[in-house]
Amino acid sequence: MVSAVAEALAVSATMAWRIGWSLVLGFALSAVVQALVDKQTVSRLLGDDRPATLVRATGFGVAASSCSYAAVALARSLFRKGASFTAAMTFQIASTNLVIELGIVLALLLGWRFTLAEFVGGPLIIVMVATAFRVLVGRKVVEAAREQADRGVAGSMEGHAGMDMSVDGDGGLLKRLVSPRGFTSVSRVFVMEWAAVLRDIVLGLLVAGAVAAWVPDSWWQRLFLTDHGTWTLVWGPVVGPVIALLSFVCSIGNVPLAAVLWSGGISFGGVVAFLYADLLIVPILLIYRKYYGMAMTVRIVLVFYVALVVAGYVVEMLFLLLGLLPHRGGVSVEKTGVSWNYTTWLDIAFGLLAVVLVVRFLRTGGRAMLSMMNGDPADIR
After folding, report:
1. SS3 sequence, 70-112?
2. Separation CA 138–CA 158 (nearest Å)
3. Among 72, 256, 339, 366, which is least packed, fewest CB within 10 Å?
4. Could you tell me the pLDDT band of residue 248, with boundaries at 50, 70 and 90?
5. Sign of the torsion formed by the C-alpha atoms of 270, 276, 279 and 283
6. Is the per-residue pLDDT at 119 higher than 70?
7. Which Pfam families does this entry report, sorted A to Z (predicted)?
8. Alpha-carbon torsion 40, 42, 45, 47, what sign?
9. What is the mean pLDDT of residues 336-365?
């Protein structure tokens, strides 16, 4: 048993070593953007579900990258402040699945083709979700959801979503960013984002390490109907979101497990559908019910699931036609531990940047902010 646990931890450590620097880079860039754009402006620009508005919602979501829990709480906050429900859902999808740190981690663990697939499938899912909500979500359902959202039922990361740490005042963006207030704001957003997502990243790495070390490839191959031709392609996007639903891990935390599933034989489209299903994990489904009521939750689940499955099929067929499907042997789950190479240097460099931001955060009253992350947003307002 000790040997088995050690093997699982070695796999987890190797994955963490490979993606650590990219996470710091991604969250630092996200912190810069969030320090310059206030949430009231975002809400004001997302008041309807016209195509131009949904494009803005996608852009804001990409800029305000978050873990799944924080994204869901932030979407509710925008909805309460006047954003349309469809725009809020678009923002939520983009802020978890179309962000730079996710793309870098995908490239490092699975290869650039998976990163490309993520950014091809994302807009496709947004279009399908927006179209479906126009048909399935009537005014009465939206009004009931808004009434439920206004009841102040706090969920995971609700306090974090309620905080607006943007820097206002005169001067251009660069002047605000390099000011002492700007530096403080960036450090606060950076640390708060890490605090929100760290649990899921660690859990994802541990689950992926355990699965890679303990579950034989033959079991995955039977589950995924590997080498069954058309049935393999059909089954992958159907079962991928179900595995994600039961994994309890957010978007970035899902990537190590996606590498394990791909190595185990799931189809390319199945990986795509699995990665996007971070907004359908069991804890978030319970949050949807508290935020918007059962009627809206049922619609969210049905629309999201169908969109994920269809996107998995479309992306796989598109990549097949373009000759971009990755070779199965091109991705492997490393079990050899860390080594001294360029990745180590990047981890050290960006680790120092993280230390600087954390020190600034602690010296400017950050500890009190951490205590409010899961609190009632009324305490923040």
Report:
1. HHHHHHHHHHHCCCCHHHHHHHHHHHHHCCHHHHHHHHHHCCH
2. 26
3. 339
4. low
5. positive
6. yes
7. ArsP_1 (PF03773)
8. negative
9. 85
